[in-house]
Amino acid sequence: MAAVVLVGAQWGDEGKGKITDYLAEKADVVVRYQGGSNAGHTVMVGREEFKLHLVPSGILYPGKLCIIGNGVVLDPAVLVEELDGLASRGVDTSGLKISNRAHLILPYHKGLDAVQEEHRGEAMIGTTKRGIGPAYVDKAARTGIRVGDLLDWEEFRAKVTHNLTATNELLAKIYDRPGYDLQAVLEEYAGYARRLRPLIADSVRLVNRALQEGRKVLFEGAQGTLLDLDQGTYPFVTSSYPVAGGACIGAGVGPTRIDKVIGVVKAYTTRVGSGPFPTEITGPAGDALRQQGMEFGTTTGRPRRCGWLDTVILRHAAEVNGLTGIALTKLDVLTGLEPLRICIGYLYRGTVGEDFPASLKALEECEPVYEELPGWHEDITGARSLEDLPANCRRYIQRLEELTGVPVHLIAVGPRRDQTIVLESPF
Known about the structure:
12 helices, alpha/beta, Adenylosuccinate Synthetase, Chain A, domain 3, 3 domains
């Protein structure tokens, strides 16, 4: 038996799509356990690029069981569009199953997301306005509508009618916005019910049965540790649990089932949206790194903020996830930069510390303490072993391991599947 959780160890956008794709080839089952269509994974297959938002990356390998778990909030409009897009490119999606316990995103969730973000003004969080937060709010408030409700139309109708009445009143009285037409919503979702009915299943049973049978299961997280609702830079976080523990909740498995946790680490640091970012590089240098790394959101196209590698946040990620290994991505992007800088601590009110603060105000006051390392100028995109890398490149990797206490298992030196150095396979 092998159960591996793959998590982002920074603010998301670490290149999890490539690593998930690599591990999915070895897995029998791939499970997406949280988040919604606000997340995106980019996978390169040969010269073809696939941008996935809800469907697990394993779908690109025939014969894999791919599960959208109960911890996901599902926008059926996005899923149907994604499935049609994959089918048009010859991808077999028959292996996909959707948890009957996953919660649905409805049109009013997206409307609320947009208007609430607008009303935050300068305090806006930077949401993708895809209804993720409001859907999780309904879930926590126990007024959510689940995928399984699509199988009982009378139940679905009753729940939508109740929720829409309350939401329309909220939109009118608080935000002075028009509401949603009940019949239009019902007609739209009746079509989704017909389309998705064959894919709906008891995902908890499917995953646990696979583990009992000794099959290899990959739990695929979205976003990253610093966007976790509890462990991230709150309130500039997502509305779910991207950390490894979220896999147990979002897929319905016990923690004793998990064998390994791999943290995906970009060779530098990026984040999207608002919030403190101690190692951010601004001005022309930051713009150059953004262009060299093609740092634009998979889902939104928004430019990502770029900065130096921050091992303070990586040590935090190692602790809260229980990382057993690191998958290092985009190492090739650093080629030609001289010198390289790694943040080893934060200076806060005259004292240097190595811990990641919970207080947003304290984090905003922190100044990064850097260690400089010599860079390299050799092209590393053709490297297929550690020995193929320049000495300065190997030293950068070694220093990352020393500062985090976690060994590097995989190294990505380019976006393609074959541009991967394997030091230890998680499976």
